[in-house]
Design a protein that fits this description.
The chain is α+β, with helices and mostly antiparallel strands. The protein is built from eight helices and eight strands; from the N terminus they run H-E-H-E-E-H-E-E-E-H-E-H-H-H-H-E. Strands 1, 2, 3, 6 and 7 form a five-stranded antiparallel beta sheet that branches. It has a three-stranded antiparallel beta sheet with strand order 5-4-8, with no helix packed on it. The longest helix has about 40 residues. The protein is globular. The termini are far apart.
């Protein structure tokens, strides 16, 4: 009897230690939150197609919520970078005359995790482990826009990394081109031709700069205006 009482008391203390986490939301780098989805396209399998959200990368999970005349979606990408591209590509575009807004999403802790209990849901969408403290925000923090400030930092790092990679690749291309002109060897010519096409196109650098400019000059803190959506297939069009 005493043993059972001791175990119960231990569980209660453990649950109490996580009680404060019930008010916390953790920003996920691979989670994209989208609003403004028209009812006719409010279908997980449709949105995962290459014409829509699937064009940016592989989606692990997609959850839809109907809110009045439009729907919202949480799309979890396998890779963080694909989620970044999705935010940049979707936000500020039109889909069947509805303007879409996209940002990185936040997740709360699973109630079972908070009580130190195993979660019975195999596909539970909530957190079952402690999240990054720098990406964790209270409801008051979110109302103050602190999660959006953190999102800004993430995208600054992303743009900086992309710019540095492009700079390094272009530097290597110049060296390769110089060697090819002076030596004229088949090996150097093949090396030049093997470079990814996107690295040989200066338009990508300009496009990235425009996306960055739109991100830092967004009109709303809660809805960053990243208007770099694709014009292909008629699925998305720019605002």
């Amino acid at each position: 009897m005493k043993r059972n009482s001791g175990q119960l008391e231990k569980k209660q203390k453990m649950a109490e230690s996580r009680k404060h986490l019930s008010d916390i939301r953790v920003l996920q780098r691979n989670l994209v939150f989208v609003t403004g989805i028209p009812p006719k396209l409010a279908d997980v399998e449709i949105l995962k197609k290459p014409e829509y959200f699937g064009r940016y990368g592989k989606i692990h999970k997609c959850v839809l919520n109907q809110q009045g005349p439009v729907a919202t979606a949480y799309a979890t990408y396998v890779r963080d970078e694909d989620a970044f591209k999705a935010v940049l590509g979707i936000n500020g575009t039109y889909l069947q005359n509805n303007i879409l807004r996209a940002s990185l999403g936040t997740t709360k802790y699973c109630s079972y995790f908070l009580r130190h209990l195993p979660c019975p849901k195999q596909d539970c969408m909530y957190l079952h482990g402690l999240g990054d403290s720098s990406a964790s925000f209270t409801k008051a923090d979110m109302q103050a826009g602190k999660h959006q400030q953190y999102e800004n930092i993430i995208f600054r790092e992303y743009f900086s990394k992309k710019a540095e990679t492009m700079k390094q690749n272009m530097s290597r291309q110049k060296i390769t081109a110089k060697d090819d002109l002076t030596c004229g060897t088949a090996a150097t010519r093949d090396a030049w031709c093997a470079q990814p096409a996107e690295l040989l196109d200066n338009r990508n650098i300009r496009s990235m700069s425009e996306s960055e400019h739109n991100f830092y000059n967004k009109t709303s803190i809660s809805d960053p205006d990243l208007s770099s959506g694709s014009r292909e297939s008629g699925s998305f069009r720019n605002a």
